[in-house]
Amino acid sequence: MTLTNDGAQAEDLKLRVVRSGTAKLVGQAVNFVLRLVFLMIMARLLTPGQFGLVAMVTVITGFYALFTSAGLSSATIQRVSVTHGQISTLFWINMLIGVVLFVLTLATAPVLVAFYRDQRLTWVTAALAVGFLVNAAGVQHNAILQRDLRYVTLTAIEILAQVMSMAAGIALAFAGYGYWALVASSLVGPAVLTLLSWVTTGWIPGAPRRDSEISSMLHFGGVVTIQSVMVNVAENIDKVLLGRFQGASALGSYGRAYQLVTMPMTNLNAAIGWVAFSALSRIQDDRHRYRSYFLKGYAVVISLVVPLLVFATVFSADIVRVVLGPQWAQVAHIFQLLAPAGLVVTLIQGPTYWLLHSLGSVGRSLQITCVYTAVIVVSCSLGVSHGATGVAAGYSLGLTLWVLPHLLWCVKGTPVSVGDLLGTLWCPLLGSAAASAVAWAGVRHLDQPLTRVVLGGAIVGCVYAGVLAMLPRQRDFYLGLSRDLRLMRRAGA
Asked: What angle do the packed helices 331-349 and 387-411 form, to 10 degrees?
């Protein structure tokens, strides 16, 4: 069997991309709501210390998890053509890596106990080690679904896996198992996802075999993996420093603020990012279509994440009270300090990953990420003596100073310019600021936080949509997307 791009006409590919993107957006919207509900429930059943205890382990296991795929899922997707034998070989390489990571995680448990000075981490680490075997078994099956743009199916699988994960965690939390509820939740989801990916694809790996193309795929995957390692360091150095020098409670508060800031961009980038990477890889030799596809996907992410982030910043105190409860009030200030970093990350993710990876420029992407990571490490290290607020402020300041050099480096020699990227930002940013200001002025005298959040959100949505509708370029863009969706429904019919 050979899995190749079927050479569909441009309009055909466009409809497949729109269908896939729509499915992922809907799926990520559901994912966002489910995660928010899960966080609301668990925040009322568990303490900051229990969240912090598990976070001490997941910082490390999350780092190890970067090696589970070894970038080989990206290699499978990015190739113009790939054979059954090549994917089978990559599958067994992923399984071997999974076994190595399982053993390595078990060996890490005593180190974590000594570092954090908490004996409970031994069995938590041992339990989470099993996840590496489960995840490794599903890497290539998941990649096949993405390569074939079967995102409707993949989205359904992901939602079901998340529901099962939540059910396990909530049930154990209600039963009084404390932090073990978080451990169980993190294991059940991947297990369901892997099982359903096998069943859905129907693909059975064959025996590994030697192939001249495997080396180049391993090189591509290796560079992607090293980059993922650097990103993981950047995303977790703040938490490692806080856990080590300020303790579990400070880490628990900071972690919840970080989670609230990153949820919108994580969900939307997950929705658009992999679809964009899959589609852009298919048209990497057509510069005009490539630029058009990239900017449309990038504009969707920016226009959705920015208003959510600005609204959440303005209403942070109410949102924290509604989502987490009054005992987490200190999280609101940390959230506000992290918000600029969230905006910068939203801006740079598309150029760093969709753009450079789909063009095969993983070397440059790695170089950029190394500098990006160094900026965050230095910024968070300078702020850690001031606790969670110091780390949050340092994080945002460092990224704000770095964003323009980052974008210039990314787009050099590509079909996209910095002007293209920044041109997608100003309308959503100004529209979001105006809408949030109007909303806050209209609801700030109300007594109930939930009422302020719900009514304020409705006002922001209406005002923001009105602002975009008054701007011809924005209006035409969304009318074009609407036409594509109607074409997609007709094609489906």
From this structure: 10
